[in-house]
Amino acid sequence: MENYFSKEIETMPAEQIRALQNEKFLKQMQHVWNDCPDYRKKMEEAGVSINDIKSIDDICKLPFITKDDLRDAYPYAMLAKPLSECVRIHSTSGTTGKRVIAYYTQHDIDLWDECCARALVAAGASKDDVVQVAYGFGLFTGGAGLNGGSHKLGSLTLPMSSGNTDRQLQFMIDLGATVLCCTPSYAAYLAESIKERGVRDQLKLKAGIFGAEAWSEEMRRDIEAGLGIKAYDIYGLTEISGPGVSYECSEQTGMHINEDHFYAEIIDPDTGEVLPEGEQGELVFTSLDKEAFPVIRYRTKDICVLTRKECSCGRTFIKMVKPRGRSDDMLIIKGVNVFPSQIEAVLLEQGYQANYQLIVDRVNNSDTLDVNVEMTPEKFTDNLGEIADMEKKLVGALKAMLGIFAKVHLVAPKSITRSEGKAVRVIDKRKI
Ligand code: DLL
Asked: Is the CB of residue 70 below 6 angstroms from any atom belonging to ligand 1?
């Protein structure tokens, strides 16, 4: 039996959702036009006035917002409420340059908490659960988002933050955590540590809500087997609010977008043209009822597909498939587009775990790809002939998937650094 946090909204017929989106979109545009000078200027530069926006069908007339626009307007990018009405900020992890700061009024926090509560319920949680939040707390939205959702649901919430694996496991066992929320790479690490300590039979976990980075179906199966749970995907980004922009249900075939709060489009990343449902492209979001930091046609750089196919859970919200990766994570090696997630899928299919590192370089004007992969304890051997055979097999499987040669190096178990948050798996030396 499927439960919903907001049944009426989550199962609303598609035409009614569209009508609700239309109404909220027009209000959101009025707010942006009147209160967000940065975006109004962008509209004027694009030759669009608020009078041209009569319904949500006119959205395609509006200019996109990119991360660069938000960075350029640092620190008050696109702020549409006085600071005195804002109650919190979060910020992107930004490896280079200025970070994007997202502002929230209490209304914005409430709607975000609701989105995360929906995600928890879709994963089978209720107020009787013990929810261990092992996403980082602080500027990152992961910890605060799931913490807020769990409070809203009324579950006992363990605000662990990420890391300190001994303490995580101690609390997980002693307090009988039933739902785990963290990045999939940290979940895989926790599963590994649980196996090593032989404490799996002391766990009460039944579900996990994992997101913030791309992960494959094969990795899902590994985590499910390692922790003895159902593993659900959750997606979101700081600019739109945080985790809970979309969430997976019992069908586990993609994530329902909270369409009463966010309007999604898929565009051709090169031309900006809107693509029909079912085609792969870049995901673009428009907030429908945010106060402090509304975003209109924000280009996420995430590559994915939307579908309105009927879902067995009864939810009518449009679904996005697991993002394949980001257009800016996509590597072009010898002219071929390669997503780290494709390599990960091959490794897991061949019985390895998601402990790997990709090193891309350019030697004599030609790109090279080296894949360092840990042997699992079961596969571990120091027989060089056996290692060479295993490497050869992986080279063949990678060639079949990618169409290019990758040099594979099998390394000892535990020799690749584990991640407590988002994993860093690519070292592209060509940029240096
Ligand atoms: O990662 C928010 C989040 C926290 C989502 C916890 C889920 C769970 P940012 O740090 O701003 O926000 O990073 C956003 O992470 O554009 C995607 O590229 C990636 N991402 C997030 N969730 C997923 C997912 C948080 N489920 C960026 N699958 C996004 C693939 C994801 N990529």
From this structure: no
Distance from C-alpha of 110 to C-alpha of 396, rounded to nearest angstrom:
51
Q: What is the pLDDT of residue 422?
A: 86
* Pocket perturbation via mutation, ligand 1, pick of 91, 120, 182, 235 by most ligand atoms within 8 A of CB: 235
- CATH domain 1-324 topology: Rossmann fold (3.40.50)
Going by their DSSP bridges, the two strands 255-257 and 298-304 should be labelled as unpaired
Q: What is the pLDDT of residues 101-112, one digit of tens each?
A: 999 999 999 999
Q: Is 312 exposed, middle or buried (0-12, 13-18, 19+ CB in 10 A)?
A: exposed
Would you state the pLDDT for residue 386? 95
Q: Is 303 in the pocket of ligand 1 (CB under 6 A)?
A: no
Q: For ligand 1, is residue 233 a contact (CB within 6 Å)? A: yes
The letter for the amino acid at 344 is: E
Torsion sign (Cα): 76, 274, 119, 11: positive
Domain boundaries of the chain, sorted by first residue: 1-324, 331-428
**Cβ(91) – ligand 1 distance below 6 Å:** no
d(CA 192, CA 179): 18
Q: Separation of 98 CA from ligand 1 center, angstroms? A: 19
Residue 179 bridge partners (DSSP):
131, 207
Model confidence, pTM: 0.89
**Nearest alpha carbon, ligand 1 atom 13:** 237
**77 Cα to the center of ligand 1, angstroms:** 20
Cα–Cα distance, 201 to 418 (Å, whole number): 24
Kindly report, residue by residue over 267-280, the tens digit of the pLDDT.
999 999 999 999 99
> Which atom of ligand 1 lies nearest, measured to the CA of 92?
11
> How many angstroms separate the CA atoms of 319 and 341, rounded?
20
Atom of ligand 1 nearest to the CA of 135: 6
Those residues whose C-beta lies under 8 Å from the C-beta of residue 148, and which sit 6 or more positions away, are 109, 112, 113, 116
Measured distance CA(235)–CA(225) in Å, rounded: 22
Phi, psi at 59, each rounded to 5°: -60, -30
pLDDT band at 324 (very low <50, low <70, confident <90, very high): confident
Domain spanning 331-428, CATH architecture: 2-Layer Sandwich (3.30)
Residue owning tokens 């900006």 = 272
Confidence check: pLDDT of 77 > 90: no
Q: What is the pLDDT of residues 201-219, one digit of tens each?
A: 999 999 999 999 888 898 8
- 344 alpha carbon to ligand 1 midpoint, in Å? 18
The DSSP H or E segment spanning 412 is none
Atom of ligand 1 at shortest range from CA of 233: 26
